[in-house]
Amino acid sequence: MPRLLLLLLLALTSACASLPEVKPSAPRMLRGYEYIPDNTGRYQCPYTHDGVLAEWVDKAVSARAGAQIGKAVLGATGGIVGQVKGDSVTGLIGRTLGQLIGNAAGRAATLKRIGGWETVRETSDISFMSIESMARFLARFYKHHPHFDLAVDLTGEIYPEFVPWGERIRQGDL
């Protein structure tokens, strides 16, 4: 059992490889919303400056199935670890760990299939320093775009921390 946990933790840490450090450009404001007019920010926008989906989003569509499989398999592994132990605290830890590992595996699978962070950066021309700034910007300028739900879903696959913000946008809370 310790070997399994060690392997799961190793998978989590390798799948959560951070973005290469890039000195961000100075943020700009557009009708009160802060953004960076290039790809030097921490979070890359799923839309380009001319309002179309970024190329990395198109590539992520085909990678989506792989990400969902990784999340399901590793999420189930965490649930099994919790059930084997049999107590509610260990079960909660197992499920939480499984979810974290599943998110990391899904992110890694999506990134691998689209060509990595390099592809995301190279095909983006709007970026943000915070996930909240990106969410508010998307809600304000792209909420009525015909592919908005797809863009939100795929953004959440490479930035799992964006998922709650995407839900808030959909619920009209932003």
Would you give an account of this structure?
The chain is mainly α and 174 residues long. It folds into two domains: 28-53 and 125-174, no CATH class; 55-123, no CATH class. The chain has helices spanning 2-15, 55-85, 88-114, 116-122, 131-141, 148-158, 163-170, and strands spanning 28-30, 33-35, 43-44, 127-128. It has a two-stranded antiparallel ribbon with strand order 1-2. A two-stranded antiparallel sheet has the order 3-4. Helix 1 (2-15) packs parallel to helix 3 and helix 2 packs antiparallel against helix 3. The longest helix is centred in the middle third of the chain and has 31 residues, at 55-85. Mean pLDDT is 79; it is low at 4-18.
Q: How would you summarize this macromolecular structure in one to three sentences?
A:
The chain contains seven helices and four strands.
